[in-house]
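USER:
Before I trust my own judgement here, I would like a peer's view. Write it directly below this note and I will take it from there.

ASSISTANT:
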Amino acid sequence: MVKTAEASREGPSSNPVKPEASPKSRPAPDKTVAEEGGGAGSIHEERLQLLMRFTLMISVLNGSVFNLVLPEIARQYRLPSSQVSWVAGSYMLVYAVGSVVYGKLADRYRLKGLLTFGLIFFAAGSSLGAAGPVAAALIAGTAGWRYLFLLASLALLALPFLRRLLAHEPPLHGSQMDWAGAALLTGAATCLLLAVTRSGWLLAAAGLVLAGLFIRRIRTAEAPFIQPALFASRSYSLGLAIAFAANSIGFSLPYLMPQLLARVNGLSSARVGWVMLPGALASVLLGRRGGRFADKRGNAALMRLAAALQAACCLLLSTFAGASPLWTGAIYVGGYLGQTLMLVALSGTVAAELGPEQAGVGMGLFSMLNFISSAATATLLGKLLDLHPTRALNPLQQHRAAYGFSNIFAGELVLIAVIVGAYLFLPKRRAS
């Protein structure tokens, strides 16, 4: 679960930055590894980065690919959208807490051991999720989407090389891990999301109680799960809130598109993937240019461009959802690229509010909230899709089966306006 701010310029994912280990707790690399043989250090670092990018790709792919088959899962198990949304929501919720947990553990344990445990646990969990259903499906004659669980096993290919490159890692002396704080946060988020899915007031009350206990915990613990001092900066707090809302739009596009194309246009999962592919390619090819644009023109200028692309996407999808898949795919390109650029702009803006000693922890919190935003968005969208409205908010929408999708995109158009308005309140010296 490692991703740098630079990597966020290459494409949107709900995971822009992993919390860095504290410079005080992690000593400098062993000189025999980093400097031996003149240029060997740079070669060593390049190889390590390539391996980490490979494992990151598998991790992101493992979470994203299931959006494509959510319609098939819902149809096979006869699940409403609100329940099938937990396939994506639960994954993102665990990812959210794990991004901070592993960041803190990296201050106490060697990366070689953490990566070994993480990759084996990751692959074992995915293989376990596939073994039973695949065996049953093979007996019946087909395995279908169940094979997707086995993608995570590819990450094990990098493990022996990572262990070799990290063989001389120095010992660490980091701070204690606040397991109680992590448990309270996870419990609060889970209860609140379940309250939305099941419309349960008792679950909502339990979530609020756990959230209150979590706030109290981080204020009194010696080494809290989240440093409350970070919220002393109003600009940083506002930036987190804006990023939370912006990420909900970014996650909704790849979440809703497969369901729109499958349920309204009747496409198979394979064809849905081909329709969405140009958007992903545009994000990869142009995302880095967006980062250079921010360096030259400022984050505020990039934010305006990103918001314009997303607003145009939501307006067009609200109007033409249910039309030709080719048109839908073309519109999706602009929206997906807009989310990439918005993520770059917001990462730069939020990072500018942090001092060097707060950068790792502060951006780790930024990453965690983006994951929580994704989980909450999946839950809320699933509930909205179960409503089956009889009219569209957009009078130009003509496809009755797409009314629910059209109304969601119309609502997101309003949310984009709120995000841009809130962004204007950030200090101009930071936003630019």
Q: What stands out?
A: Residues 1-38, 135-141 have pLDDT under 50 and may be disordered. The chain has 16 helices and no strands.
